[in-house]
Amino acid sequence: MALGRMGTAAEPAMTALCEATTDPDPDVRFWAVKALAETGALADVALGYVIRASRDEDADVRWQVVLALRKSGERNASKRTLRELLADVHFSVRTEAEAALADWQ
Length: 105
Hints:
By secondary structure, the protein is an all-alpha fold.
């Protein structure tokens, strides 16, 4: 959470945040995705980790991925991932993905 609040000052921790997206604890994965989005525009490497997190077993992590992708800007990889999340089993993930795609049209 603290790294997310630091914004761009947390960029030196980018590698650790990327690795934290695969932590066994879903809360750690959630906050890692959020912090990556808060550091500013997701770098290509970080974007790849966030996209991989879109397949997380935890719906809250997937929901946070949608929010992160919204902040990352309109990119083909982001759009493709959001389209995939339109079929998510959880309503909140689908709804956020739909809203994000609508913002970019």
